[in-house]
Amino acid sequence: MKVSTFSSQLWNLTQAKQLTGKEHLVLQALASFEGDKGLFPSHTTIAHKAGCSVSTVIRTLHKAYELGLVERTVRRAASRSGRIVRGTNLYTLNKIDLSQAIELAKERAQKLRECLERKKAQFLNRFSKWHSATEYNSKSLISPKRQHHLAVSDYLSMISEWDKAHKDAQTSLLVPPNCS
């Protein structure tokens, strides 16, 4: 199914829960700047028109790049001193198939799940080291009243319950956190 206009495409993606309301507003604000010379508003201008923060605009644009909704061309300009500096971005709005956007969103959700698994493993590794150091250290700085820590198995069961409760929510979160 081809979408006739960018606005109706945004609406369809929002209804299919591939875009949030805020992302819809940001992309709609971006589309409103389209003119004869192209589309090149600053992040601040888009944020002001959409009524959100610059970081929300940047995050939304990165998602739109991944979904194929928007293409960016970084332009260079010569400064007064003759140096070449970065200019404004030139944006191109693309029309994509809804099924293509859903597939790309599924890939992003899988990346998010993998990232969450890595973060969970890092947390458990750090927690088990910390727990064993404080539990068996008789010279611990923690007062005896505060040494009633949960066992690692209790934390593992809490995390598995969290995983079960938030499995559906993870697939709807399409912006992966900064994972290293």
UniProtKB/TrEMBL annotation:
InterPro entries named among the record's database cross-references: WH-like_DNA-bd_sf, WH_DNA-bd_sf
SUPFAM superfamilies with a match to the protein in the record: Winged helix' DNA-binding domain
Keyword vocabulary terms for this entry: Coiled coil
Domain of life: Bacteria
Pfam assignment, any one: HTH_36
Coiled coil start-end: 99-126
Protein name: Helix-turn-helix domain-containing protein
